[in-house]
Amino acid sequence: MKLIFSICALVLSCFAQVPNNCNNPNWHSLETNETARLNCGPAFQDRCLCYTTCYDGHHQHVVNCTNSGFYNTKPLSHLPNNTQVLIFTGNSLDVLPWNVFGTLDSLPELRVIDMSSNKIREIHGKSYHHVQRVERLILNYNRLTMDPERSHPRIFSNFVSLLELHLTHAFDTGSPQDLAATLHDIFVNSNLTQLIKLHLEQNNISEFRDSNVFCDLPNLLDLHLGDNALTKLHFNLSCLHKLRFLDLQRNKFSTVIERDLHTLDTFAKHNQSVTVDFSGNPFECTCKLNPFLEWMKRTKIFVRNKDLLRCYQNGSVQEFHTIKGCITKLKASSYRGTKAAVYLLITILVALICALIYLQRTAVRKRLDPVIDSVSRRVRYTSITTSDTREIDV
């Protein structure tokens, strides 16, 4: 009997030591869709699945309410206490009220919240409570307002452990200036000091009102600004001491101005491993592209997808190449400097001549008076002769 108990204990201990990851062939779920719906409780109206499944490489307890037809967030105040991942997407919420997850701190294991594609227009400042341990928030493809009267800059203030914030195509259509102002207010007023990854793709961003818009994110590693309308770097990089990847794919860069190249080089001196991606931009095959080409050859920054860069000329797509016959910046500046110097010398010369004439006006007048009198006499004589001739003709 003791031997049997020992064998059972050994078997149980072996199963207990099996790592909880998706590569474990000994793990499988016994839950069916029916039991998964029942696990959620009556508040979810049999529209969601609550089960343990593989997520992010290891098994976690997931509440999945994808395309469940909810028009409010009432079920979320009844989430199971062991919920680690919440997927609440494809619903119609419009406005997130206060205390979406209830008033009790009963979600100690919640790490991921995905509320994409819910047509959310407004998030109250007190909507998200009890999310101190959440590490990833996904709000992609919503319609967040940029109206100052309806936007709440402190919407993320309770996410003190947040590592990833996904805001791809998250904002309603409006002016780029309003969006820039909204983002600025959100980052300044939210406690996102732990954030390492920020996604802002597809938001029609063309500029930022405040160049220090990202400076309140001191631990940011990856900044994704692809599929926007940027033509220049309208933001400060020097405050992002840990940044390792800057995504600028598919924006509106026709070239990269030398000021931005200098900014990137200065930043690279303090960040040894930095990657930037300019692929998919509508670069123009003009002389303005040459400094960018030279920069890519010498910079310490790793330019990802460098071989995919293309430029456009007369409607045709071409591989990046040095444009011939361009006046270099040094020659052009030298020519402009010489031209300006000539103009200056001519001006000084004219001024000196005028000053000399003024100082010697008495002597000049003595020399010029006889000449002027002689010319005057000739003019009068010519006038008299012409008059006499006319009288004879008559």
**Dominant shape:** elongated
The helix/strand order is: HHEEEEEEEEHEEEHEEHEEEHH
**What is the CA-atom radius of gyration, in angstroms?**
37 Å
**What is the structural class?**
alpha/beta
Give the helix tally: 7
- Unreliable spans are 1-18
Strand order of the largest sheet: 1-2-3-5-7-8-9-10-11-12-14
What is the average of the pLDDT values?
84
* Helix proportion range: 25-40%
The main β sheet shows up as:
11 strands, mixed
The total strand number stands at 16
Distance between the termini: 160 Å
SS strand fraction: 5-15%
If you had to describe this structure to a student in words, what would you say it looks like?
The protein has helices at residues 2-16, 33-40, 176-189, 258-270, 290-298, 329-359, 361-393; strands at residues 49-55, 58-64, 85-87, 95-96, 112-114, 122-123, 136-138, 164-166, 197-199, 222-224, 245-247, 275-277, 283-284, 302-304, 310-313, 316-319. By secondary structure, it is of the alpha/beta class. It has an 11-stranded mixed β-sheet with strand order 1-2-3-5-7-8-9-10-11-12-14. A 3-stranded mixed β-sheet has the order 13-15-16, with no helix packed on it. Strands 4-6 form a two-stranded parallel ribbon. Strand 8 (164-166), helix 3 (176-189) and strand 9 (197-199) form a beta-alpha-beta unit. The longest helix is centred in the C-terminal third of the chain and has 33 residues, at 361-393. The radius of gyration is 37 Å and the shape is elongated.
